Amino acid sequence: MDNIFVVWTPLHVMNVLNLIVNHLEGKNNEIIIQNDLPKADRYKEVLSLVYPNLNVTIADAKRLKHESVIKKNYYLLSNRDIFNQKEYQNLYIPGDTFFTRLLFSIGKKNNPRMKLNYFEDGIGAYIYADIINEVNIFDTLQCKLNPHSIFNYSFDTAFVYHPQYADQTKFKDIQKIPAMDDRNPSMAYTRKVFDMVYERENIHINKSTIVYFDQPFWQDGSGICEKEVFEKFLQIIDRKDTDILIKLHPRSEEGKYQDVDILQTELPWEIFMLLNQNLPIIPVGINSTAIFSPTLIFGALQPAILLASWLKNTPVTNLTEKSFKILNNTIGLVENLSIDSIYLPQDNNQLLNSIDNTIKMMEEEYEIET
After folding, report:
1. Is 0.90 topped by the overall pTM?
2. Rg of the chain, C-alpha, whole Å
3. Do residues 230 and 212 touch, judged by C-beta distance below 8 A?
């Protein structure tokens, strides 16, 4: 097998199809779907139908997650091949999971010449975030005791949408994958896959609407209380004249936000955008990948509002050094990308002006009443 790709989100599926069609057509390619991806079985069925030359398998990542710490680390230290994997030349991953670590160490033991490669997972490639994290004593033991551990190797090639803005220090080579537009030959496959995996949703948005992107900052220990930030945001804007929907993060509970309607979709935002183009939506968020997706992935310049600068200047509790690092990295990315369609308001007045200006743009573009 030439190439194996590991995926666990719909965005991964889209980016891998893009990578294969434009860079690796004609090679022996296999996608391994972690079964914690919702509708994993349906993805396997549809991908096999839409792209018959692609091998698709499902890995029982859920079971591995629930193994004891001792058993997990035994697997990693022993390179035990519990998957009965074939030898392959390249492993492509978008991030770090127990399964990818185990798959790498098994693959490296079977084929010392195997290369580790990266494909884009969102804005992480552009804000210099670590892809593989050594965070505890078990990771240190793997690094020292297992010569095949992923901690002892670096990435060979990265495939991203904007190589010039990616972290040049992490990869030996960085290759561009093309924007997901109608000129891209992978677009037809991608649309067909997601049309078949997800039932078509009837989304009716007839006036300019803010879609506010929830993120589990507090849960992840970043020091940002996203509910408090949203409450302060609501205090600034006039809800009588502005429709607002919440796009809940998959790890958030349904009742997290009171008295605000939820955007009822099971689709990840990138796929929602792919299947529901030309809606008068104003994305607003702190540093959600969705704010960047239209520009990074689709090459579109959709107006959006990023709250990172505003939040730095707004009194909220519990902001930490880690919080400010997240905000500064996000601001730096927007500035580096020179994305004119993304507003970075500094204070309340600029926030209100950016909302007003964006609504006017929507009114003109879609010929709707606000």
Report:
1. no
2. 21
3. yes
